[in-house]
């Protein structure tokens, strides 16, 4: 099963073991290795039986793209390309859009196989964990921000139109009300009605 002193890249090994010092130990195969000293290491020694096999395994630092999923990119062209599948350890066809995407993108099948030879499904987690975020992430963030801005602008326009209509309705309703009759006009109307009644009464045959 091996142990945790097992890294796919030299950079990962240096980063994990930076500043660690220890004395030489020899495993069952006679290989000399360096392990950290401390209370936990004094109680038990790590298994070094697979150390020689680990030394013989070489993973170039530029193979991280071999475990990436095929990315068609953002453009709309239809370009036949090859990508490496670490689960089947073969290359397969996919359609490339013509721009962006990732490096798991080869023009020829032979080029794909030579570039990613030796990468299998057991390497997927380690290499993907170290791979940088895809460039399409920034595009998605930009689209999300643009949509939020559009929504805010639409809400502001609708709010402005609503309040404008409310003010217009209020003014129209205010102008439709007739002013209440004044006492003088009421008196004049009553006098005219009385005179009309008296005239009708005296002139009636």
Automatic annotation (TrEMBL):
Biological process terms in GO annotation: epidermis development; epithelium development; extracellular matrix organization
GO MF: serine-type endopeptidase inhibitor activity
Gene3D superfamilies, per database record: Pancreatic trypsin inhibitor Kunitz domain (4.10.410.10)
Alphabetical list of SUPFAM superfamilies matching this protein: BPTI-like (SSF57362)
Region described as Disordered: 28-48
Keywords: Disulfide bond, Membrane, Transmembrane, Transmembrane helix
InterPro entries per the UniProt record, alphabetical: Kunitz_BPTI, Kunitz_BPTI_sf, Prtase_inh_Kunz-CS
Domain spans labelled BPTI/Kunitz inhibitor: 66-116
Any single GO CC term annotated in Swiss-Prot or TrEMBL for this entry: plasma membrane
Spans through the membrane: 141-163
Domain of life: Eukaryota
Pfam families the record matches: Kunitz_BPTI (PF00014)
Name of this protein: SPINT1 isoform 4
Native source species: Pongo abelii
Record lineage: Eukaryota, Metazoa, Chordata, Craniata, Vertebrata
């Amino acid at each position: 099963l091996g142990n945790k002193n097992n890294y796919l890249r030299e950079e990962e090994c240096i980063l994990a073991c930076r500043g660690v010092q220890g004395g030489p130990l020899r495993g069952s195969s006679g290989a000399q290795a360096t392990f950290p000293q401390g209370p936990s290491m004094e109680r038990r020694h790590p298994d070094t039986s697979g150390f020689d096999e680990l030394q013989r395994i070489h993973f170039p630092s530029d193979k991280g793209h071999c475990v990436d999923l095929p990315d068609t990119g953002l453009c709309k062209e239809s370009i036949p390309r090859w990508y490496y599948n670490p689960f089947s350890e073969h290359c397969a066809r996919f359609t490339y859009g013509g721009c962006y995407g990732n490096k798991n993108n080869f023009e020829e099948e032979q080029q794909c196989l030579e570039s990613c030879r030796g990468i299998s499904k057991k390497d997927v987690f380690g290499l993907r964990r170290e791979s940088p975020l895809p460039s399409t992430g920034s595009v998605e963030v930009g689209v999300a921000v643009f949509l939020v801005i559009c929504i805010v602008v639409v809400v502001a326009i609708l709010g402005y139109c609503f309040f404008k209509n409310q003010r217009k309705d209020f003014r129209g309703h205010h102008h439709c009300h007739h002013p209440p009759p004044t006492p003088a006009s009421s008196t004049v109307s009553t006098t005219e009605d009385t005179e009309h009644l008296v005239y009708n009464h005296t002139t009636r045959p």
